[in-house]
């Protein structure tokens, strides 16, 4: 099933997104990995880290990745790297990160 950006936001709650962004203590120029794409949260992260920062968003579901890429490009965030990958062990291809934000449901921590 394909999720929309709105469904993703509703799923985790806007208050939780704000809390995660604040807890990550991101600043201009930060490098951040988001595990679980949807688009909206990656756009928020991009606003926080600014033009010198990096946002890499990964998701295991190819449909979610395609949807996030389209939504981010349409919303004016083509600089966000959205990758089709299993974020279970992070995502080393993006280099070192200042923060990792997980926006997916998991049954095992």
UniProtKB/TrEMBL annotation:
EC number: 2.1.1.77
Domain of life: Bacteria
Any one Pfam family match given in the protein's UniProt record, by short name: PCMT
Entry annotated with the keyword Transmembrane: no
GO biological process annotation, one example: methylation
Primary subcellular site in the record, as a coarse category: cytoplasm
Similarity field: Belongs to the methyltransferase superfamily. L-isoaspartyl/D-aspartyl protein methyltransferase family.
Identification of the protein by name: Protein-L-isoaspartate O-methyltransferase
């Amino acid at each position: 099933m394909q999720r929309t950006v709105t469904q993703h936001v509703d799923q985790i709650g806007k208050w939780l997104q704000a809390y995660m962004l604040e807890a990550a203590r991101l600043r201009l120029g930060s490098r951040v990995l988001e595990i679980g794409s949807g688009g909206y949260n990656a756009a928020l992260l991009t606003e926080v880290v600014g033009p010198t920062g990096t946002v890499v968003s990964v998701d295991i579901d190819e449909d979610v990745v395609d949807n996030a890429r389209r939504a981010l490009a349409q919303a004016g965030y083509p600089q966000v790297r959205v990758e089709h990958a299993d974020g279970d062990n992070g995502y080393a291809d993006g280099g070192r990160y200042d923060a990792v934000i997980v926006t997916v449901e998991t049954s095992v921590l």
